[in-house]
SDR family oxidoreductase
Amino acid sequence: MSISIENKVALVTGANRGIGKAIVESFINHGAKKVYLAVRDTSSTKELEEKYGNKVVTIKADVSNSQSIKDLAQKANDVDVVVNNAGLGTPYATIGENVEEDFRQQLEVNAFGLLRVANAFAKTLEDKKGALVQLNSIASIKNFSQLSTYSASKAASYSLTQGLRTELGAKGVSILSVHPGPIDTDMAATAGFETDSTTEEVAEGIVSALKAGDFHLFPDAMAKQVEGAYQSFSDKVVLADMNE
């Protein structure tokens, strides 16, 4: 299903920096009517508010808190497109003294956060025949040892995204699973990745993928290499109707 951003109302979690901020700016540049900036620190979006005025609305929200996301959905009940960008990415290997705690924290944000957002906005998106965009990463497909717990949490969110494609897709909601490689963000730098790929590549890719009605988006150079190797499996297993 094709979704144009023009004249749409959108919501972006983690909208204050990095990929989230780039998505906000890209949506507005492509004609979005309004973008909700869902962030934990409402003072962190001042730059976007000053630049875009009444085209953006900041709302306090925490994807790790169920009530916070339910409240968010009540306040932003006119959305056409929801982008679940907020995520936690700490570099942690599989073997480590505090690995269980680290993995639990990343699951809370990266996987349970998606469940909270999807369930809270499901009815609105069904009514609007809108779209849900989930930032998943190539780490959802391949485990990177220095990011093992992050990779596992994103694998869980990718699996849930596939479930949403089946359930909400049947009700007219477009689902887009975004799989960037290392992008020039604070998280990539902390993990030790050097990259020339930009947040704008991801944001512009989302606009194009929504218009094309795609389920997967591999927006940058490294991600496209993964896409090339993954395409056959995706077509024959992930996107296939195994009930036939």
Summary: The CA atoms of residues 4 and 136 lie 22 Å apart. The first strand starts at residue 9 and ends at 13.
